[in-house]
Design a protein that fits this description.
By secondary structure, the chain is mostly helical. The chain has 12 helices and 8 strands.
Length: 282
């Protein structure tokens, strides 16, 4: 994750599960699992504080996997069946895929999604707290074949309903005192790279699916009743920059995190450098 002397990773989501937590999850005994989760979370929080992290999280130790925070608290998800070429291209393991609720069913939250994840860090460490949620576009499409217009339209309906649920959770987390909420969508890379688009061209309408994801993920944040004080955006492509500029103009502080050497890797370097300079001036 980081060390005391060389570098820091200041914003992170899922951390490597300790051996004791993995063993407790495999055993399947609820009380022992809850105790192992609590112990692992507290240890991870103190380690993050010792390492000087500017924001801390629970490592997603209470989740079986990244998407569980939605699958466990939103009704209507079912087994993913048939081909899922976009999820295959993004490298999403089969165990993490679910089919989203389809009409006439509507996704419905059974309660808060990440309340427990936020509560322990807020109560135990005097640092800003960071939570990552799966984006609505991701949840609506990861288990779908997206093979034709009807499938894309059905995913769009589910995605918009999921956006309302995620938006409510973001507002609730902000009300708890969580400083940073990130939406994760691992399906963007194959839709935005030349190799990914070529791989998907015969299976899905790449541009239509990309539009669906952007619309749904935008809806989760653009209709918030309150503008976040500080917004972290994972990814420095044109979509991330669009969100960043929009919220900066709304009055939020914006941090864009990009793992590549520069922003907008698909664009010419001089163009990307100029965009970066303009962004830093805003």
């Amino acid at each position: 994750m980081a060390d005391d002397f060389r570098y820091h990773i200041d914003h992170h989501g899922s951390l490597v599960r300790p051996a004791g937590l993995r063993a407790a999850r495999s055993a399947g005994e609820p009380e022992a699992l809850a105790a192992a989760e609590a112990e692992a979370v507290i240890a991870a929080l103190h380690m993050q504080r010792r390492l000087g992290m500017s924001a801390v999280g629970d490592g997603q130790f209470r989740r079986e996997h990244f998407e569980s925070v939605a699958y466990d608290h939103v009704e209507g998800f079912g087994p993913a069946r048939g081909p899922q070429p976009l999820a295959d291209a993004a490298g999403i393991p089969a165990a993490r895929r679910r089919s989203a609720p389809a009409a006439p069913a509507t996704p419905a939250a059974t309660g808060r999604l990440a309340d427990a994840e936020a509560a322990t860090p807020l109560a135990n460490v005097e640092r800003p707290v960071f939570v990552v949620l799966p984006s609505p576009g991701y949840l609506a499409t990861v288990g779908s074949a997206l093979a034709d217009r009807a499938a894309i339209d059905a995913a769009r309906v589910s995605a918009q309903a999921l956006a309302a649920i995620l938006r409510a959770e973001i507002e609730a987390l902000a009300g708890q005192g969580v400083a940073y909420v990130a939406l994760g969508n691992p399906l963007y890379p194959p839709l935005l790279t030349v190799a990914g688009r070529e791989r998907l061209a015969g299976d899905v309408d790449v541009d239509a699916v990309l539009k669906l994801l952007v619309e749904a993920d935008r809806a989760a944040v653009t209709e918030l009743d309150e503008v976040p004080e500080h917004l972290i955006i994972l990814g420095g492509g044109y979509i991330g920059l669009e969100f960043g500029q929009m919220f900066r103009r709304f009055g939020s502080e914006v941090t864009i995190i990009e793992g590549a050497a520069r922003l907008m890797m698909m664009e010419d370097e001089d163009v990307a450098d100029e965009v970066a300079a303009i962004s830093q001036q805003q």
